[in-house]
Amino acid sequence: xxxxxxxxxxxxxxxxxxxxxxxxxxxxxxxxxxxxxxxxxxxxxxxxxxxxxxxxxxxxxxxxxxxxxxxxxxxxxxxxxxxxxxxxxxxxxxxxxxxxxxxxxxxxxxxxxxxxxxxxxxxxxxxxxxxxxxxxxxxxxxxxxxxxxxxxxxxxxxxxxxxxxxxxxxxxxxxxxxxxxxxxxxxxxxxxxxxxxxxxxxxxxxxxxxxxxxxxxxxxxxxxxxxxxxxxxxxxxxxxxxx
Length: 243
Prior knowledge:
This protein is 49% helix and 8% strand.
């Protein structure tokens, strides 16, 4: 797990901006559109919005844990998490929007309440991953930005906030897929010339070079894009393991 400190106030500000943009997009829908399929298999747009609201509270719980040193899990249980999403998915649009706003306000309050001397505190996420408190805003930013795309309302990779794209690409390459046995050694070259290595390191084979915009690379690695716009000289893009 990376120990690189994050710019927590910057990331928390980006969460607020991304949430505002999500609310604008969601506000253009209606009750019928909420019940339609999202881009996530098996989930309607209502499922996506319900998940986003509960995730804000879940990550807020981890910020409270970091601030108080009292263990506060993201969710009461996996069953409770899934039940809450199913319960809320079919609500009218107005209820979703209210919940999104209120849960976002609670997350922001928890972020603002985190003292500087607790930024390096480590908490445990629902999948058992241990994370620094100062990375939780970036975690929330990923949820808002990627699921905004998943709503299927026209939000695209090139609209993603730059602070998210850079932070997420760093996370995916340095943490999520670093040494992953199901991904060949990769060297990702973004349009600013920066090179990032990820994937397997135990084969001795030369890294496959993949070139494209940082947003395209994030889209491919997160399953939000097929990578057709990426350049892989003399080879084909490998399959990326699920997040």
